[in-house]
Amino acid sequence: MKKIVIVGGGAGGLALATQLGKKLGKSGKADVTLVDKNTNHLWKPLLHEIATGSLNDELDNVNYLVQAKNNYFSFKQGQLIDINREQKTIKLNNINDHQNQTIFPETVLNYDILVMAIGSTSNDFGTPGVKENCIFLDDQESAKKFRKSFLSTLFRISSGLDTKDKLNITIVGAGATGVEMTTELFKMVDTIGYYGFKKLSSELLNITIIEATDRILGALPENTAKDIHLKLEEFGAKILTKTKIVKADENHFYPEGQEPIPADIMLWTAGVKAPDFLKDIAALETNRANQLVVKSTLQTSRDEAIFAIGDCACCAKSGGGFTPATAQAAHQMAAICYKNIVALINNQPLKTFEYNNKGTIISLAHTAQGVITTIGEKQMGVKGWFASCIYTMLYRFHQISLFGIFKTLRLVSANRVYRSIRTKINME
């Protein structure tokens, strides 16, 4: 029986493990194991909603053990620290509890086929002071930590213990995460004020978005990005483009050739890279962002037994450029990787991956805006209620890939019931 090990339970990794479990694990054709350092999965594009409390992370979490049991694969908690390509093994570090006691020892797993789906982390580009002083929204724990810290600040202001008239929040990086986080912060403070907390409204916030390039949302058409730029200014955000940060300290960002920008809260959402430990791991080829270089079949360039998908994969597009590090791309890669692993086991030809950009929708608090790809690969601008529906449906399709349509509908119903009896945001 073939041993298939998938490292990373993100959007692509968990969908792949679920599909392979149903196809190969259930029939006994393969032993499928998913590895992740965490116990639960959350769709990464929703992290800004966890950070601002607008998403119920208890209902939207996917427990890896439950998903594995229901879909005929195994789950192993641990973090990859080494790959031995000659012996076809991977080593996982030990897992400690909150008291720093080891609960799972260092482990070695054998594989016949290995899939790297580790995802990405924020890229500080080596800027001095950023790692020490900025908040990164890399995972669920960092998002929750931000929410609790931000709520404490707001409650101190409401009770008079903190006498700030304005709360300066500076966000470096005007991609989807930075833009969505900005609008959710304004919405969050207004919502808390709605429940009777004095002095709390969106007027309290002084949010500055800093972008090194000449405009926000470089992945979107220029006209769409301009519309969203105007929308952000309507919310009350200040946007600085063509502004490169060269240093940060405890309460300031330092733009090149300009005066320091003060900040009570400093968020860094500029750029992504694969985790540092992937750099040249097991002598596999990597790029400057630590991504594993893959062929068109998604097999790594130096080892056909190892695949890479999602944010940690450097996959060239046939027309030039590279596949973007997005959840959309990760899902598409997982679908082709699934077909290629089945084909590899059955000694059949492998398929070529070709990224299909279906568009990008940006959530803007109570509304949304972006583009979708239509017939003929033309992009059509969408905004308002229609765009919000599409944005929500993207997540629902992800849930359907994990649970099927009927369980997903039950989750939607459960969320509606829960929202009817709880505060509009999570204030814990």
TrEMBL record:
TM ranges are none
Q: Repeat as a keyword?
A: no
Q: Does the keyword S-adenosyl-L-methionine apply?
A: no
Q: Which parts of the sequence belong to the FAD/NAD(P)-binding domain?
A: 2-334
Going by the UniProt record, its keywords in alphabetical order are: FAD, Flavoprotein, NAD, Oxidoreductase
Name the family the entry cites: Belongs to the NADH dehydrogenase family.
Task: Specify the protein name.
Answer: NAD(P)/FAD-dependent oxidoreductase
Organism, as annotated: Frischella japonica
